[in-house]
Amino acid sequence: MSALSNQAGGGIPLLGPADPPPFAVIEGSPESEVMLICDHASAALPESLGTLGLADSEMGRHIAIDIGAAPLTRNLADHFKATAVLAGYSRLLIDCNREVDDHTSIREISEGTIIPGNRRLSAEDRAARIDAVFHPYHAAIRDCLHGLERNGQRPAVVAIHTFTPSFHGIERPWEVGILSGRDRRIADPLIAALEAESLTVGDNQPYSALAFAGYTIEAHAMAAGLANVMIEVRQDLVADENGIRRWTDILCRVLEPILNDASLFASEEAGVREA
Prior knowledge:
Layout: E1 23-26, E2 34-38, H1 69-80, E3 83-87, E4 109-110, E5 113-114, H2 123-150, E6 156-163, E7 166-167, E8 170-171, E9 176-179, H3 187-196, E10 201-203, H4 215-220, E11 228-234, H5 241-259
Parallel strand pairs: 2-3, 2-6, 6-11, 9-10
Antiparallel strand pairs: 1-3, 4-5, 7-8, 9-11
Helix pairs in contact: 1-5, 3-5
């Protein structure tokens, strides 16, 4: 398959039988009141699109995947016996954390790198990615949340991401960022617990969820009044097994008392206040 194989045209399906599914679900305990989400868990691309014209080395960069986010999510799901949904394809194919009509949904350039296979896509090409990847991923999240709600839970939603140590030449000092909108039920105690671990914590840094929390959290958690938070770990700290193990231990330790607090799940409005 050519690296510049761009569109799965001629009626050929975007995803073939050898391609991975558009999402992975980890089934949690029926008693768990935690839902984990990982939007940028994978660097996979469909065989029909080759490598979008990029060198293989580019697929290990942040432009393709949140480094370390998937194993962190899986480890947290195992510890909390929580349901988790992980995206099956690279954000280069389509960013499942953006609305489909957002200009960053399918990027032609990312962090200075041109994505040849994303240039001049037709409406049909875009629709193929939306239908094959974006919609199934979000349907899986909805189905999992509805399943928990049918069991009487109002789950807390925790999204796991990672961020680059520098951006456009500016160093980012935070070891971990805690992102939230007006609902600070998880964010406030989580920041306090992380700071007690002598960590450098960003409150709505390196991104702010007050202006835009990302499509996934806004559509599935905020819209339903579910307690939610986004955790961003700096990528150089989770780039190997030792780092992933360390941050799994940290996050399990600080989240445990927060997620065991029954008041977190009391009602849609509980604890929501202006930031």
